[in-house]
Amino acid sequence: MIAAEGLGTLSSLATETRPGSDKTLTDGSRVAVVGAGPAGSMFSYFLLNMADTIALDLQVDLYEPRSFCYRGPAGCNHCGGVVSESLVQRLATEGIALPDGVVQRGLESYTLHMDVGDVEIATPLQEQRIAAIYRGNGPRNSEPLDTQSFDGYLQHLASERGANLVRRLVTDVSNEGDHMRVDCADGFSDEYDLVALASGINSRLEGDIEEHGSQFIKPDRTKAFICEFKLGRKVIRETLGPSMHVFLLDIPRLEFAALIPKGDYATLALLGDNIDENLMDQFFSSPEVRKCFPGGEIPVHVCHCYPRMNIRGAKPPYADRMVMIGDCGTTRLFKDGIGAAYRASKAAARTAVFHGISAEDFEAHYWPMCQKLEADNRYGKLLFGVASLVQRARFARRGILRMTLKEQLQSGKARRMSGVFWDLFSGSAPYRDVFLRTLHPGHIMNLVWNLIAGNVGRDAKSKDEVVPAGEKRHDIH
Amino acid sequence: MANLGKQYKDGEIIVHQGEMGDCMYVIQQGEVEVLAVTNGRELHLRTLGPNDFFGEMALFEEETRTATIRSKGPSRILTIDKKSFLGGIHEDPSLAFRVVKTMSHRIRDLTDRLAGYEDNN
Fold first, then answer.
1. Are the Cβ atoms of B84 and A92 closer than 8 angstroms?
2. What are the structural domains, with CATH classification, of chain A?
3. Which of A162, A183, A267, B97 is 20 to 30 Å from B63 at the Cα level?
4. Does A346 touch chain B (CB under 8 A)?
């Protein structure tokens, strides 16, 4: 404890600077964090970091029954596994450099596949700033690799910072007035001053809390599909390269599809409105997808899952002595869920340390961040709606492809369409920024010109050619 | 193994003293030398290693780079955009803690070295 003459201790000073809250964390306060995914681990890490800056002594228990050192579903958090450009930069600024073992591949471009052609959109700096990662320790039955789980790494950071890892499954969280109670599946029970719920979207815990009759409404969800293909490093280098492959195909209910290279494997993520077998059959039989695989044949996947996704946040994601972060609170629509978990975990930690832990404190200092994310998601819905229209209009796809391709070939000129796609695919910029950029007069005029130039004199029903796997196609046909 | 950032060879210049800059850099792997060139003489200021950053002054002021940064052995460097950094600070001021703390250490170090220089003269 640091004492300053005439001011008392720094921790008492911290308490004094939090007027208005009747519930605050003080020296010796106990915090339970339920779930050690990115949101839970980052909350623990930042909470202890911030508490340290004002000499506040907290005890943090991080509950997580799984070990992220297992391969396959036992150690996985069911996610496409991409850390956005903006999050890589923010983490680096925080002093968190993702180790080489965690980063399965640094991505330096996106390749957009459409029935009218492909285009590779390169990062403006020719630098690898997007990380392809495994949330667990690799696909089911994968050989021992020199890989490290992203979630395991963040958990390690939290532990190193002083969080106590508790290997128990939390089955209930209840408010008992002046404290919270956490009950576990093995009968263990403990009391805390604050509970941060970071149990993800696939846990039953939120449903139980909703059924308890509180005002809490759990997030709306949809089903995604994720699978892993074992292709080998050589094949991946020759076919996919350091590029994330994104598909804009005319398949109903499919919002976004991406093939992400990672070491010996490639992860396929399909997002949309309740992905089912019929949709997957249509996706895998499309020539644009088949040509990404050797010989145009889709190999058998080694691991797959149907994780649920948060498409509308919990309301309210807080209560007295409780805050919900990550997917069980509010997240970004379809993209950059890990980046949203980072922002939520910091906002929640900042509120708890510098303001208080009552519902009013979280409403005043945490809820605005969630509302901002929700408001931005509305722009996201609009953008993905436009993308769906483009998926159905061949003439639009031709114009967009032509415009993007020309931008990629001309250096020094404004790359408006490429920038829109880059930020939409990478999740690096808020959807609102991306949407506003599409309204720029220069962007609209250029698009109109390319729609005309890309379609005049062409047979709209011309048969597409199939390009063999690995052969990059930068043309319009 | 996969990695992030851009690779630089031994002796390769990452930042030139006197040029305008609009980004800072974080070292992912390897070391870099910070050099000031005055009257044609190269003055070694310090060596930076993994997780250290440089070029941060360009984010706060519209001035030219004050030093040359040269890769010492092979290195891998991640660029942090001015817009991304300042946008982040606007949303979350605590993001600047580490940068401010490091800048403070560097001012203290330079003050100590200047005092030592004055003593020796």
1. no
2. 3-70+151-219+312-377 (3.50.50.60), 100-142+222-309 (3.30.9), 381-455 (no CATH)
3. B97
4. yes
